[in-house]
Amino acid sequence: MKYSSSKENYLKAIFHLQQDDSVVNTNALARQLNTKPASVTDMLKKLKAQKLLQYQPYKGVKLTADGKKVALQIIRKHRLWEYFLVDKLGFGWEEVHEIAEELEHISSRKLIDRLELFLGSPRTDPHGDPIPDSQGKMPVIQQTALLDLPLKKTAAVISVSNQSTAMLDLLKHYHIGIGTKLQVNRRFEFDQTLEIAIANRPVFTISELLASNLFVAYDTTTA
Amino acid sequence: MKYSSSKENYLKAIFHLQQDDSVVNTNALARQLNTKPASVTDMLKKLKAQKLLQYQPYKGVKLTADGKKVALQIIRKHRLWEYFLVDKLGFGWEEVHEIAEELEHISSRKLIDRLELFLGSPRTDPHGDPIPDSQGKMPVIQQTALLDLPLKKTAAVISVSNQSTAMLDLLKHYHIGIGTKLQVNRRFEFDQTLEIAIANRPVFTISELLASNLFVAYDTTTA
DNA sequence: ATTTTTTTTTAGATTTGTCTAAATTTAAAT
DNA sequence: ATTTAAATTTAGACAAATCTAAAAAAAAAT
Ligand SMILES: [Mn+2]
Ligand SMILES: [Mn+2]
Ligand SMILES: [Mn+2]
Ligand SMILES: [Mn+2]
Fold first, then answer.
1. Number of structural domains found in chain A
2. Are A141 and A124 contacting, i.e. CB atoms less than 8 angstroms apart?
3. pLDDT tens digit string along B33-89?
4. Which residue places its CA closest to the C1' of nucleotide C20?
5. Pick from A40, B84, B171, B194: CA 20 to 30 A from residue B133's CA?
6. What's the CA–C1' distance between A24 and D7, in Å?
7. Which domain-ending residue is among A13, A48, A63?
């Protein structure tokens, strides 16, 4: 029931790359983990021997129920620590990911359950991603792409799908974060740029690329 | 400037075994680290190559200034995390050591400095041991062995030199912890047992072995 | 001063996780 | 249907950290 940091990172990466019941390829994994395809193949054999994933040579890989369970515990730890770093220690949301990559491998179950309580059982991490509960159940958060938001409708940013430092830097520049309330004034046809309005601030425009990575929630009750 | 967990554990163990400028032997280190003497020799050669310690075959080992600096940073992290676990997450002081053994290897400097601030810059950990500051300077805490405490003098427990689970269990049983105020009523000559009095509690006796591992502070101003 | 015991080091293996280079399989293009 | 290209796996090597068994050095005992 105890796996190396390396194995935990593989399981987490596979989980993230695995949409629905699709299969994950060796090269994609190697890219995600900053390693070489040959190393991935080696590790897949070991994880298969531990029944954490299904794997047939050349045919890609998929987590078993056991593998998913482990992955979800790592994700739980990662996101709770991120919340701690931002909410309790005052870190910016763009600097916590790296540190959480280390903290997520601390093994004490009791520690993480108490941490959750201490934090007040938050439902999402600082990037808006849902935090699995201690059973590994991850709440599905209803979200709409910012690109699909009707004009002039106020909505709150609830998650960002790309969390690269470059992207988070840009969001910081615009002062956009999880919970920021905004609306789309108009769409410019020429380059698909969006004009954004935030209360008490001058309007500004953002690129389609940025918008495509922002997800929002808004009141859907019929007026 | 970044060392493996294993190397950090070696440096910390040597630091703890090294009184004043004395030399540490291979066997003592092996015992402390739950490893074999042959493994210790291997590692000492690597640490010497990194100039973290002075080592001549058969002649024992001693930390260099650099080695001490690294050891003190690990000790700082260990004790701050222990404080966090007890003070913020509500752990008992006897259950935090193991978890801190893992947390002490998290590398972010910024994390530990912010943690210290968040905790209010405590001067000692839950076991009464002093916490080195970010420069690695460790405050010396004036302490007296409980065995040397004059009879009927009230004193506060400030540290325990043996932190085995067995010992901490026993202290828990007696409801003795850091900060507990007590006095020694009398010493029994036959087995050197001490009779202890704590306000609002029946008196009880403790063994000489236990007493020899307890350190206290008391008012030394002349009456 | 030898002999015996203890401590420490060396020699040679092992495990885990990684890599490069070469071989193999699968997929795409002609 | 071949040929070419891309993806994946194998073969062999390496670094880190550990171990067992044997050799060597130092310390203790006679
Ligand atoms: Mn990680
Ligand atoms: Mn996150
Ligand atoms: Mn440790
Ligand atoms: Mn402690």
1. 2
2. yes
3. 999 999 999 999 999 999 999 999 999 999 999 999 999 999 999 999 999 999 999
4. A38
5. B171
6. 13
7. A63
